[in-house]
Amino acid sequence: MKHYKQAKDIQVGVIGYGGAYNMGHGHLMQMKKAGMTPLAVAEIDPKRLAVAKEEFPGIETYTSVAAMLKKSAVNLVTIITPHNTHAKLALQCLRAGRSVVCEKPLAITTAECDRMIAEAKKRKLVLSTYHNRHWDGCILEALKHVGRGEIGEVIRIEAHMGGYARPRDWWRSSRTISGGILYDWGVHLLEYSLQLIRSDIVEVAGFAKNGFWADQTPWKKDANEDEAHAVVRFRGGQWLELTISQIDSNPKRPDRGMLEITGTKGTYIFDGKTFRIVRPDGKIRQGENCPNTYDAYYKNIADHLVHGKKLIITPEWSRRPIHILDLAVRSAKLGKSLKAKYK
User: Among the four 41, 43, 54, 56, which has the fewest Cβ within 10 Å?
Assistant: First the structure.
């Protein structure tokens, strides 16, 4: 892998400068804050390219990825496009000799992840996923308390999110494009959980309800599931349950949080702002989560490329939640659990 003398020598670009969440601007600003140099933007919408020029005076703009890779000296490319495009674009960039960061999820299928990982290794390039929520205050706080043994041995995690609402008319509601209902917030909840259960995945069982909202969306037969559920068995004996729903009439039960972590000496529950520890004797400890430290992601990327520091969000780490999601989707269709596969 090529190392750079200093962070500013890493010239960065983004694929996608769309209006949703203004993520193109956000990524370039974070990379700039980490010391890297914003150089290029590839975007098919000329109006959004004009915005990029205004927000980053002098930046190179391209209407195709091929043109950017051919004409630009960009070293590191961040892909900010719909989920089903990640693998194809990442492989295109890797084959052109560029390191790649993908917005989460890394890809939709395990096979796509494995092809991307193999290409990055072959060319000795960096491949990572923008798991900035690895540094969410809620999981950082949980790791402190759970790591100190405050709830004993972790046995089970229940992760859940959702409500009762018709899906929005956007690409994230298309199963073909998004991967399904589990792939948006589900990948975050799994990434939290996998920080707490450091054990090999043995098997995954998936369940899904389809068709309730489908006719009320533009996607019809390609609409996301109304609700999907995954159960993951780990080699260490722990298990994990993930549920994402748009037909949950009681989503804000005060005992749920986003993650409920059950241990032998207590239960740890957190949402985006607070945590609770429930003891076997009924006593409850409550508190606020520590601050988010999202800047750590691109700081680590820069330190890895300049100083050779250990990459925190490796492609293998990024593959784990995708493998769970992939197995869950296939399991739901087949009606049986599926064994995990490691390379």
Answer: 54
